[in-house]
């Protein structure tokens, strides 16, 4: 069992069924359909990305994969290449199973075929690997025994192997077998093992594989070791994006997560400078996480046990910035009844973070320059120099070089701050990190507000993945928090919960606002040939005196009639999940 998801065996037991065979239970129209899966496949050539759900994919020539196989066999030998490609397939299958559970398991909680047969078999075909046909599939819930036999048609692996080497004496669909093992093991919650027993590369009319629990195969089977988790982790967890414990009260460095190249480049630079006391200049747009990066820098440095002090220079008036930074002696000005240290003194022995440093006046910049150069300050109204020992990190959301050219920032101070610059990329340039951040914020705010998010709908996921986030990570954080609050107790986050009144991503022509009414995206007109745009439908509903609740009820009822009572099919007509339609039907007075 994975998290709160039911395993295949547990679903069977709850459903009171002993076995499934394709002759009786295979439903070609059951969810998730090929259409539903295809709707989760998004091409975004403008930024070089293909997404399946929230996973990044690649489109490559089959011949290039064949050439890779040929090179690997020549360099490593047949057995080592088989092991490597099986492991590669296992990772892919595990990732696809994760997506299926997250996207469809709540809609098909009692429908094993939807989760296992439909999704697994259709994913093979959708990804261009092979056409899968089930021959036999048996699961006995009482004895927890399983066996599945499948035929594979048009295997890309077999075709490329034959093209390179001619007919083989052994089965060669190694990546496909690994995929089946990874997918089935992840879905079922126990280690499954598939073996290819016939292959077109051996001259058979089609490939055939058999799967059963790993424990039911021979104990000395060497194939199990190919999928050792320890062997599949190439780098330590921290470098893969898992954050260190929170070192500073009120800050959460777990927000500093990501796997994208742009993010990793910035993080690698941070790790290089963390162990030395060089001044760091963080550059990047507002909301990219400059303070969170500084917290991580402090936590990774020898100064981790010292204080971490942050100040937003833009939030302090020019008349007070000097006293805030350097402190005040008693009697320095009216109201200064006691002496108090400034941020430099308070940060001594630790890290001082100066955010939005470009907003400082030229006079304040001059006094800051001395502190940076000499490590010495004087309180306002004081005459005694005070030695301070701070690690200085400055941050800016504007180009300081342009500010220097415009005469708004001192060149000598810029040179002092620009010892080790790190540019933090905007979220739109690190889109591979959006799914990680989405999941983190969903868990964080779900726990904060005591609400469990069962799923994000496909339109909601697509919107989050395609939105440009002018406010960067901070905006994504706010969107998720608002969505969890707006979604209420049903646990389903839809697109109207994400963008109730704000800017709509440009690929979304219509949005249902918080009142339940359709609203057209100002960046897109109605689709060509659309004579019944939602605005027109809304006018007709108002003319008939229908309330939003009545309109919603009539749409749901009409869809059920057309679907002949099939809830899943009706939900697809309405663009809803099965769970969402069931929720609407339950709240209906006639439901």
Structure, described:
Strand 17 (510-512) and strand 18 (518-520) form a beta hairpin. This protein has a five-stranded parallel beta sheet. Helix 5 (78-104) runs parallel beside helix 8 (174-188). With 591 residues, it is an alpha/beta fold. The longest helix has 27 residues, at 78-104. It is built from 24 helices and 18 strands. Mean pLDDT is 78; it is low at 1-27, 228-247 and 509-533. The two termini are 34 Å apart. It folds into three domains: 8-232, Muramoyl-pentapeptide Carboxypeptidase, domain 2, CATH 3.30.1380; 253-425, P-loop containing nucleotide triphosphate hydrolases (Rossmann fold, 3-Layer(aba) Sandwich), CATH 3.40.50.300; 429-545, Orthogonal Bundle (Helicase, Ruva Protein, domain 3), CATH 1.10.8.60.
Please identify the top-level CATH class of the largest domain.
Alpha Beta
**What is the β-strand count?**
18
Helix content: 40-55%
Total of DSSP H or I helical runs spanning 4+ residues: 24
Shape: globular
**Spatial order of the strands forming the largest sheet:** 9-10-13-8-14
Low-confidence stretches: 1-27, 228-247, 509-533
What's the mean pLDDT score?
Answer: 78
- Total domains: 3
Q: What percentage of the residues does DSSP assign to strands (E)?
A: 5-15%
Computed Rg? 30 Å
Query: Could you say what the CATH topology of the largest domain is called?
Result: Muramoyl-pentapeptide Carboxypeptidase, domain 2
Strand-pairing-aware structural class:
alpha/beta
Q: Span between N and C termini?
A: 34 Å
